[in-house]
Amino acid sequence: MAVNNDGNLVDTSGNVAVDFVWGNFPMQPNDDRTDGTAVSVVASNADQNKSWTGYSVYPSARLNAAYDSHAIAEAEWANYPSFIAAEPNYMVSAVSGDGTTVTYTCQNYYKGGETVNITGLTNSAYNLSSATVVNPLKTSFQVTNSANVGTLTGQLGKVQSTTALTAADGAGIAYINVPAVLGKTTALALDALLDAGYEAASITTASAATNTAIAITAAARTAASSTATVTAAGAGAAFPVGAKITIAGLADATTTELNGTWTVTANATNTVSFVSNATTAIAVASPTGSPTVKGTTGTIKTQSTAASTASVATTATITITPFA
Question: What pLDDT does 29 receive?
């Protein structure tokens, strides 16, 4: 089978191949669940017993709202993709005011003192921002406000805690962890950023960075280590960790194997290191010929937002810069 850019097998339609997919099974609420205490014992020879006798019958245990999707079922979620439980939206079906207090008809789980935003009511006087909940009941709550434009019924309003990530839809704005794209080709870098959740309009590919080959003046590798280091003036600034470099022209018997394309693992002012394919010692202070190191053309040299940066909005901008 073919693989995608992340190395996962894909089917003939280009989708990631899976062995099995669960169907659309709805989350099960806690309303009819108990704590798991045995409720009965199957009697010997009971109707349709099928030879099962003397076994206690246990109902399903209650969902634990502290774990994963159970928290979603109990209290909705925000902070995508971490699915941290957050305040949900509630629908407001009616509202009335008396000049001092506004009462909203709404099934809810608010506590006194919480602040909420109310939107979508047909009279804007009752659409309030950062209102403080008082006298909350399961089917209504009140806020202290002077609005008094009569009773409205048949409403499709919405109330949401101001602690939720947005006051718009309760789901919050999607946030991502920024992937590492240094060393990838431009095409694969763009693919990785889109896969991570960036909006296409938020990604900019800058003009290719200057990529002048730098003369190598020394090459070294400690015996039994695969890490090789070449010395070249200004290499540390030219080649960031994670970038791809191409070495050419090394001609000494112990250094020719270092010719090729490598990923930078460490750098200093005038040196750059990488993992090579062998572990024999190399100690060449003045290589013969004219060996050089340069960035690998078409691979990413820099990304404006560092890899592994967390809680970045998918609409935030990022710029990637390839080597020329």
Answer: 53
- Residue 68: strand, helix, or coil: helix
pLDDT in tens, 238-278: 999 999 999 999 999 999 999 999 999 999 999 999 999 99
| pLDDT-based confidence at residue 37 (cuts at 50, 70, 90) | low
Phi, psi for 237 (deg, rounded to 5): -75, -30
Let me know if 36 is exposed, middle or buried by CB neighbors in 10 A (0-12, 13-18, 19+): exposed
196, with CB counted inside 10 A (0-12, 13-18, 19+), is middle
The residue among 170, 168, 175 whose CA lies nearest residue 72 is 170
Q: Taking the alpha carbons of 108, 112, 114, 119 in that order, is the dihedral positive or negative? A: positive
The amino acid that residue 223 corresponds to is A
pTM of the model: 0.51
Tokens, residue 269 = 């002012």
Per residue, what are the HEC states of 153-182? Answer: CCCCEEEEECCCCCCCCCCCCCEECCCCCC
